Amino acid sequence: MNDPYSPLLLDHHALMERDRTVFEFCKAQNIPVAWVLAGGYTKDTSKVVQVHVNTFNACKSVYN
Fold first, then answer.
1. Domain count of the fold of the chain
2. How confident is the model at residue 27 (pLDDT cuts 50, 70, 90)?
3. 35 falls within a domain
4. Is the residue at 3 inside a domain?
5. What is the Cα–Cα distance from 44 to 16, expressed in whole angstroms?
6. Backbone angles phi, psi at 28, to 5 degrees
7. Is residue 26 over pLDDT 60?
8. Element housing 33 (H / E)
């Protein structure tokens, strides 16, 4: 992802899987979920947009 503030080196797929796991846990525990847009630490804003789209898609796959 080229995030200079994160040592995790997660790619788009790994981030989406992380998000899906969180949404699945919250759904199973009946925990309400809300999220806000964050990031933007790369010059290629399309990468940031893709992260947010993937988070939405992960949420949709769990709650739809």
1. 1
2. very high
3. yes
4. no
5. 19
6. -65, -30
7. yes
8. none
Phi, psi dihedral angles at 15 (to 5 degrees): -65, -40
Determine, yes or no, domain membership for 48: yes
Has residue 16 been placed in a domain?
A: yes
Q: Is the pTM of this model over 0.90?
A: no
Spatial distance between the Cα atoms of 29 and 36, rounded to a whole number of angstroms: 21
Which residue has 């796959």 as its token pair? 61
Q: What is the pLDDT of residues 33-62, one digit of tens each?
A: 999 987 777 888 888 899 999 999 999 999
40, 2 contact by CB (below 8 A): no
Task: Tell me which residue range forms the domain holding 18.
Answer: 12-63
22: which 2 tokens?
């969180």
Contact 19, 55 (CB under 8 A): yes
